[in-house]
Amino acid sequence: MPTLKRFDQFKICVFADDHPPPHFHVIGRGFKATILFETLSLDVGECPRKVFAEAVTWAAVNREALEEAWRNLNERS
Which domain, by its residues, includes 31? Predict the structure, then answer.
């Protein structure tokens, strides 16, 4: 589970051998959520609104890095 970014209250990760559609995980003390790359919308779980907003803002700026991490860990040759 590579951590791509650590914030004060949470981290953003992409898991290897994970299920589609492409998404990233937001993990913090007492919460877990997955956010879809395509729409930057909440897929599963829950997280505080402030955390969600910060994660999505970071993801929008770093979309290429997220997508590359997903491809490297999940696409089969």
Answer: 3-74
